[in-house]
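can u pls check wat happens w/ pantoate
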Amino acid sequence: MKIFTTRQEVAQYFTHKTGKTVGFVPTMGALHNGHISLIKQAQQVCNEVVCSIFVNPTQFNDPKDLEKYPRPIAADIAMLEQAGCDILFNPSVSEIYDDNEKWHLDIGRLEHLLEGEFRPGHYQGVMQVVNKLFNIVKPDMAFFGQKDYQQFMVISKMVNLMQMPVKLIMCPIERETDGLAMSSRNIHLTADDRQHALILSKALSWVKANFNTESIPALQQHAKNMINAEPGIGLEYFEIADGDTLLPANADTKKNVALVAARAGKTRLIDNMLII
Ligand code: PAF
């Protein structure tokens, strides 16, 4: 695997490469099998796969969260080598951002719903970095996990608004055998937190299994009650939304998605499930 740390190295590498389909998996590192499944999906449809590892400071609204974000770069490189990834782009913060850089893209309500309400400014940071990474790597296709469902919608909106020539692919959530959605943040969970955190996927599965038996408000309330009854879990939101807009779903919604965010001990987790 080639490892590049500067924009110039990436640009130079791709200068003479024509006719190859480039797949891109942007990450913040602390890789797990969810990330590796994105690499594998990219390998199936692209000639060359680039992964980036960059802990993006502009998407953290809590400086403590940024500070404690895991950065096991040696283990990440070993996993990427093992997965047969072709290129790792691992830039420094100054390679990506100028000092005092200001950047804003108005994507309307989508930015402020759900995650946006609890993490103000988060999606501006995500759009900043993904925009820059797309301009550096110039991928034909980019692969993102469904776990960050709203992030995928935000990036799609940005790509459409800016007419970027990249196809976005949403890949299924990878789960541990007990149902916990894989996440880089799971390493912060204590054994007790981890056990309690299972209520999130259980509540989502319950909603999916009972979708046609109760009204949306009743399903939502039942799921909230399940989560609130679990010790050590602080629920932020549980919403059944329209999968195309993320506005609250109603009886006529065709593509429903249930989304949840909660703290398990000190660790913030998100998860979701499509109900089609
Ligand atoms: O999903 C993530 O890991 C990040 O939000 C992303 C897309 C790599 C941007 O920093």
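The chain has a mean pLDDT of 97.
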